[in-house]
Amino acid sequence: MTGETTKLGFVCVQNAGRSQMSTAFAERERDRRGLEDEVEIVTGGTDPADSVHDGVVETMAEIDIDLSDREPRELSTAALNDCDLVATMGCSTLELDADVEVRDWALADPDGQDPARVREIRDEVEGRVTALFEELFGAVE
């Protein structure tokens, strides 16, 4: 990545499920690696929901990650253009003007799914975030 700070964006339509999980895992991974001063994380949606999906909050709480106070929000094109890499969740076709790498993770929507399926999606999100950090910053020793 270029520059002193790497800016990662996690985006979906409602910013109420997959992108919130991705953001939480990225924050945890950033902190675990001691990269707080080197990695900035932004999240948002193109049409934000009123709140994070209940099933997502509950499933993340099972692994001691609290999303109950998070609020979905809109993320401007300008903010996304400022990122080094943007991960979309399989529900967005972003057209960005800047030299931003966009990766579509094509994740299933957890909204309305049974708890077992939400856990599967959560675990897939965690794996993708961990792999992204390993790719960008190397493996944790």
Structure write-up:
The chain is α/β, with parallel strands linked by helices and 141 residues long. The protein has four helices and four strands, in the order βαβααββα. It has a four-stranded parallel beta sheet with strand order 2-1-3-4, with helices on one face. Strand 1 (6-12), helix 1 and strand 2 (39-45) form a beta-alpha-beta unit. Helix 2 crosses helix 4 (115-137). The longest helix is centred in the C-terminal third of the chain and has 23 residues, at 115-137. The chain is globular, with a radius of gyration of 14 Å. The model has no long low-confidence stretch (mean pLDDT 92).
Give the averaged pLDDT, no decimals.
92
Shape label: globular
> How are helices and strands ordered from N to C?
EHEHHEEH
Percent range for β-strand residues: 15-25%
Number of E-type strands: 4
Strand order of the largest sheet: 2-1-3-4
Task: Please count the helical segments.
Answer: 4
- The level of helicity is 25-40%
Q: What key phrases describe this protein's structure?
A:
141 residues; four-stranded parallel sheet; single chain; alpha/beta
Concise account of the structure shown:
This protein has 141 residues and is an alpha/beta fold. The protein is 36% helix and 16% strand. Helix 1 links the parallel strand 1 and strand 2.
Write the layout of secondary structure elements.
Elements: E1 6-12, H1 18-32, E2 39-45, H2 54-61, H3 77-81, E3 85-88, E4 101-104, H4 115-137
Parallel strand pairs: 1-2, 1-3, 3-4
Helix pairs in contact: 1-4, 2-4
